[in-house]
Amino acid sequence: MKPTEQPILQVRDLGRLFGGIVAVNDLSLDVRAGSIHGLIGPNGAGKTTTFNVISGFYPPSRGKVIYFGQDISGRATSALAELGLIRTFQGTTLFHELSVLDNVRLGCHRSAKASLISRVLGTDRATEDAAEEKARGILKFLELDRLADEITSNLSHGHQRALGMAVALAADPKLMLLDEPFTGMNPEETRRMIELVKLVREEQGVTIMLIEHDMQAVMGLCDIITVMNFGSLLAEGTPEEVRNNPTVIEAYLGSAVDAA
Ligand SMILES: Nc1ncnc2c1ncn2[C@@H]1O[C@H](COP(=O)(O)OP(=O)(O)OP(=O)(O)O)[C@@H](O)[C@H]1O
């Protein structure tokens, strides 16, 4: 799948204050369906807050978030997950004592009301069988199938992050927000994760928005990049445009642009 002109997400005049701190100020941006859209900027620029407002962790102080043409501002994370807007975190939110397969199986039950125990034990056989089949399919897709029975805490950092992606996929995302997906990875793990992100977009048709400080990865992966500074939009464009934008170089990229 390639990016379309159609926006899946529209952020309009977004503002978020914490007491006297203006974390996000008058931010507007469009994320096109099928795109990989980067959100970059210096520490404290407001990227995580923007993700938190889009994904329903905080209500906006001002402005709107529109998803598939619908105003979703201030809706709960769980309601947004039902609509396919799924956020992943910097730190993994996996059940480390469970197997790889069980983590993904639990992800398949996001809308089920059953308790954790009954989900793991599988009180409803037909639902459990369907969940297991789906989970195994996702693991195969991400080439994690040979690790299905491994206890999650035994996985390498790279595999744990890939598993986080598998759990997110189990929730049938349409828009996935990835928070620093390459943090703490070695170059080989980063290369592999870049391939996975591309695969999820190409073959599952999932639109991806990501925050990332690894400029080489961002430049190689994203179709469009939004640059924030002091809570506001500083620039937006293709990696080429952003990389050559003097304002961006001065405010953020500096020597990092040479490394990318
Ligand atoms: N819950 C909060 N309470 C108070 N201030 C906050 C809160 N969350 C964020 N801020 C402030 O808002 C500003 C933007 O922070 P944010 O974490 O969104 O930036 P960021 O671009 O994600 O930074 P980084 O790259 O370091 O993760 C910062 O000044 C931060 O201290």
Automatic annotation (TrEMBL):
GO terms for molecular function: ATP binding; ATP hydrolysis activity. It comes from the Bacteria. InterPro entries: AAA+_ATPase (IPR003593), ABC_AA/LPS_Transport (IPR051120), ABC_transporter-like_ATP-bd (IPR003439), BCA_ABC_TP_C (IPR032823), P-loop_NTPase (IPR027417). Keywords: ATP-binding, Nucleotide-binding, Transport. Residues 9-255 form the ABC transporter domain. GO terms for cellular component: plasma membrane. PANTHER family: ABC TRANSPORTER ATP-BINDING PROTEIN, CONSERVED COMPONENT OF ABC TRANSPORTER FOR NATURAL AMINO ACIDS-RELATED. This is ABC transporter ATP-binding protein. The lineage of its organism: Bacteria, Pseudomonadati, Pseudomonadota, Alphaproteobacteria, Hyphomicrobiales.
